[in-house]
Amino acid sequence: MFTKFEHFAATSLMGSSEEAPPRQDGHLQFDRDWEKLAFGVAIALSKQGYFEWEEFRQTLIATIAEWEATHELDDPDWDYYQCWLAALEKQVVASGVLAASEWEALVAQLLDCKGPTAAPPTNQ
Amino acid sequence: MPSNYPGFGYPPDRETMSAAKVKALESLLIEKGIITSQTVDTVLSHFETKMGPFNGAKLVARAWVDPEFKDLLVADCNAACQQMDFPEGMSGAEGEHMRVAENTPEVHNVIVCTLCSCYPWPTLGLPPYWYKDPTFRARVTREPRVVLSEFGVELDDSVEVRLWDTSGQIRWWVLPMRPPGTENMSEAELAELLTPEAMMGVATVKV
To answer: ipTM exceeding 0.90?
Structure first.
């Protein structure tokens, strides 16, 4: 029924208000640049077959449920894309895109340097 | 309440950390040849420039300035889409038949749906939060005039309200009436006036 993976991926997230991404006037609403990047990376990886979109969706739902179970419903720290990023991190490791050790080492490196400059150099 | 999950025991600078993590993740994926530096942009451009409410706005604006096109849009929305410079996959796929309900001085149309996957996404973009709300659906079916008035649409008693259940087979959306005072506007300027809500029938077009 869906002709484009992006179309399928976005609409499949509309099941409940918790799992659906923030949107405004028919557009996805990104408040910060990294949210866009996290959104795009998740879709791109699934589109290329590294994991089923439904797997990511379930990881996202579980991550949100976990947050809700440990926070008050009106906690101002609620942040959809923080959950999205946490789910994406779990998914890339669970589906073997990156080895757990590889990702942990990278996060540890970032924590040491505490800044975007900690990102490793790329070939691009 | 403290969290036991380390991912949520965020430091005060979680913003900086999150931004750094996402960038590092993308860089690593590029380095490993899993994605390229263009991949994410390509995905995002689908939402930003290919499919969204701007397509519906273009169709409506064209219909307002071209009566023949309007007839085609109402008779066969997918055929009308094919006349526009829209991306592949915009319409015509199996099951994705779009139909347009035309607002007139006598009839005001509103779309409802129980499943958001049935929303006419290529022309209206992503559905608003309240669209999926069972209360909205129940109330708009039971007391459409009251709900419309809460949205700011005041209808004369003589106007008939028609509800269209958009489904997997037929995705309905609404062709709003062209507002007065727009006679000298270009097609592009008219398109700017349109909102997803107007094309769902829960708003009128304002200048």
So the answer is: no
